Amino acid sequence: VQLVESGGGLVQPGGSLRLSCAASGFPASRYVMKWVRQAPGKGPEWVSSISIDGYVKTYADSVKGRFTISRDNDKNTLYLQMNSLKSEDTALYYCAAGSRRGQGTQVTVSA
Known about the structure:
The chain is an all-beta fold.
């Protein structure tokens, strides 16, 4: 059972990144999936969730209008398109499905 995130990196303020989360070993298509982030010295912060069918998407106020969550159930993959990135978006981003979570991918927004 694995959730493996990728796509993080260093980006300048105002830039974009697309995160991916590949699921394997369990029927991810049957789960609501979400992105969570954790900044240094802070607790986990929920970022976004997506329904099983991909039609219902919810976002934290801090990312609404800038981030877009999506999923491809045929590929067992979850995505997070992040635009207009800010320094406060710097964090370890991880995906979760039920009680499962990945190790995360680091996003650093800095000039």
